[in-house]
Amino acid sequence: MASGFRVTLLGTGSPIPHPDRFGPSTLIEAGDQTILIDAGRGATIRMSQLGIPLGRIDALLLTHFHSDHTVGIPDLWLTGWLSSHFGARRKPFNVIGPSGTESLMRHLEAAYGHDIEMRIEDEKLAREHIAITVKEFTGDGLVHEAGDLRVTAFTVDHGDAIKPAYGYRIDFQRRVAVVSGDTRYNENVVQYARGVDLLIHEVAMARAELLQNPLIKRIVNHHTSPQEAGLVFTRAGPKLAAFTHLVMLASETVGAPTVEELAAATRETYDGPLVVGEDLMTFEIADTITVRRRG
Ligand SMILES: [Zn+2]
Ligand SMILES: [Zn+2]
């Protein structure tokens, strides 16, 4: 049986189409369990860079229904069904998420019904391996358990009109990683992440001259600023804090903030261990946390 607890950022981006930052998706490998939190743009390409067959995923967990977190689902689901070495799923596609997940997945089944029937007829692929099982939840609590792996969902605050929205706490053999999901500064993240090994948090930033722009203002108001994230890190006190889902806003005339500016702004409120995530960055969680790049 495989051992070890690893978290890999498959995509650290946002809706902004960026060649270096794919859509939000975080891979968790815990013992013999492999789960994915969200499936944004390009999640399948990142898995292929890691040499992990798409069919290997035991469960996909969704934080919320913004398209940047879900557009990779049909690719993962359908390509993962193919017989080739990069697919090879030999079980139903297992999805866990807030209320609304069932509807999303049933509509995808309808949208791709023609493809599915063609491949069953032509490639003799098994219908039971393209089947989708869905487990929905409606509030904070344990949503997934397999061996020593326990996943707990907790409510976050992504804005008054953007509900439901959740973060996840992943417990494995007394080690803990927390993924904030998309959220403004939120007390629940601090509560669920207190003293954990790894806290992965979203962040949004724009240069001061852009903050008067109403569109930019609205986006920033749905997310956590670097200073607010620093406050979350200071209060939760994880062994390591890391950023993902970098919303680095720009306009045609004002450039996006740099990673250095992001780190400097976070340092206004936090002086502990901090990493700005990149696609394919892996955190090996043991007595210490090792950060390396895979793929
Ligand atoms: Zn997002
Ligand atoms: Zn969102």
Summarize this entry quickly.
The chain has helices spanning 43-50, 73-79, 101-111, 113-123, 187-193, 214-220, 226-236, 259-266, and strands at 5-11, 25-30, 33-37, 59-61, 93-98, 132-137, 141-146, 149-155, 166-172, 175-179, 198-205, 240-248, 274-276, 281-285, 289-293. It is an alpha/beta fold.
What does this entry look like structurally?
- With 295 residues, the chain is an alpha/beta fold.
- 24% of the residues lie in helices and 30% in strands.
- It has helices at 43-50, 73-79, 101-111, 113-123, 187-193, 214-220, 226-236, 259-266; strands at 5-11, 25-30, 33-37, 59-61, 93-98, 132-137, 141-146, 149-155, 166-172, 175-179, 198-205, 240-248, 274-276, 281-285, 289-293.
- An 8-stranded mixed beta sheet has the order 6-5-4-3-2-1-14-15.
- Strand 9 and strand 10 (175-179) form a beta hairpin.
- Helix 5 (187-193) runs parallel beside helix 7 (226-236) and helix 7 (226-236) packs across helix 8 (259-266).
- The radius of gyration is 19 Å and the shape is globular.
- The model has no long low-confidence stretch (mean pLDDT 97).
- Bound molecules: zinc ion (2 copies).
- One zinc ion (ZN) is lined by residues 64, 66, 158, 182.
